[in-house]
Recover the amino acids of this structure.
């Protein structure tokens, strides 16, 4: 609050005015604080649409300046851009899906400069050097990187690299680009080295706390909003929170869940997702946190009306901030099928996606740009 009154009156007013909502990082940059508060204001009014790797490639193309499958279909870019830092920790020039980090930095900047929102996940390789990378489930991996563990120094070196990248994300005025940071995603699953089956809840929480502390205190990274992200396998709020590190270290509550069965024959995804989002958005309200449906999709979207008939019903009246669909890889040689989650020009669900785009409730880049999410309005 601006200091308009001084003396006793000022003091009384200062106490009478509730402290303004602040992100978990007490030293979050101005743009990060503004993004947090503006997303809070928007929650319940509109849902930002996000897409992973949107600017880097799509179905049938790669690294074409200004191109985006979403833009080809709607004339507008997504409001949220998802990126992944997997590979940065081992000095790879490209991330785990082949995107050069140099290009990624540029795409992040472009999206931010146009007014979009950036979210970053991290499919970190196994610190024990196991072949399956992030998907290794050797018990004890998390324990090995915690303070006192054999690989703790290695973990700090990894965080140094992650911090270096995050601190290299700058807008045209030299300001740091705020990032919805989503490390250790799907943390209640059983497929990554940080999942439920490979470490105790306490070890996971310690990993989060250490990461949070190290990035802020040691590396001075203050452009992050922290996204707590489970998989869609919880049933109750207590299960969702089982590995929660604490309100003081989290800004966004979220989970990932995908459609696998034909939604015309089986409405489980729609019904179940709605219930899960209800619990998460209720928790968001109780804890005064943002909420999101951080990853979803129906691979190759074979159902023409998936956007307005399934996804929209699954979200229902839940006041989430954004929904993000996974990447448009195209033909996947590893399992001989198409691997993409957003429509491209000519795709089966294109017309329905345009309807979805036109709804007042869904927000794409032009609409969020007009809201100036990084300014204090
Ligand atoms: C999975 C697939 C993989 C990819 C991974 C991390 O869902 O898209 O091809 O490597 O995500 O992006």
């Amino acid at each position: 609050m601006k200091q308009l009154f001084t003396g006793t009156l000022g003091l009384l007013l200062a106490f009478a005015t509730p402290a303004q909502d602040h992100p978990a990082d007490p030293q979050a940059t101005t743009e990060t604080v503004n993004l947090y508060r503006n997303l809070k204001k928007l929650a319940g009014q509109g849902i930002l649409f996000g897409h992973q790797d949107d600017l880097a490639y799509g179905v049938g193309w790669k690294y074409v300046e200004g191109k985006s499958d979403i833009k080809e279909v709607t004339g507008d870019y997504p409001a949220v851009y998802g990126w992944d830092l997997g590979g940065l920790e081992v000095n790879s020039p490209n991330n785990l899906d082949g995107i050069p980090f140099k290009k990624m930095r540029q795409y992040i900047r472009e999206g931010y400069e146009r007014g979009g929102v950036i979210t970053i996940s991290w499919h970190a390789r196994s610190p024990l050097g196991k072949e399956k990378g992030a998907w290794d489930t050797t018990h004890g991996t998390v324990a090995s990187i915690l303070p006192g563990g054999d690989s703790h120094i290695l973990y700090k070196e990894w965080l140094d690299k992650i911090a270096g990248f995050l601190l290299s994300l700058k807008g045209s005025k030299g300001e740091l680009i705020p990032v919805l940071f989503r490390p250790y995603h799907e943390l209640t699953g059983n497929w990554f080295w940080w999942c439920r089956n490979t470490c105790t809840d306490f070890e996971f929480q310690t990993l989060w706390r250490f990461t949070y502390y190290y990035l802020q205190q040691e590396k001075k990274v203050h452009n992050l909003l922290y996204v707590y992200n489970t998989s869609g396998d919880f049933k109750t709020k207590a299960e969702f929170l089982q590995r929660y590190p604490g309100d003081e270290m989290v800004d966004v509550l979220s989970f990932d869940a995908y459609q696998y069965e034909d939604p015309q024959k089986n409405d489980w995804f729609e019904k179940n997702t709605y219930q899960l989002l209800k619990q998460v958005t209720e928790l968001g309200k109780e804890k005064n946190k943002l909420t999101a449906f951080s990853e979803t999709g129906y691979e190759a979207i074979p159902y023409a009306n998936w956007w307005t008939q399934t996804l929209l019903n699954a979200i229902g009246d839940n006041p989430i901030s954004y929904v993000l669909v996974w990447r448009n890889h195209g033909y996947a040689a590893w399992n001989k099928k198409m691997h993409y989650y957003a429509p491209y020009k000519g795709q089966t669900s294109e017309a329905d996606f345009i309807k979805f785009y036109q709804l007042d409730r869904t927000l794409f880049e032009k609409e969020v740009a007009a809201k100036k999410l990084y300014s204090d309005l």
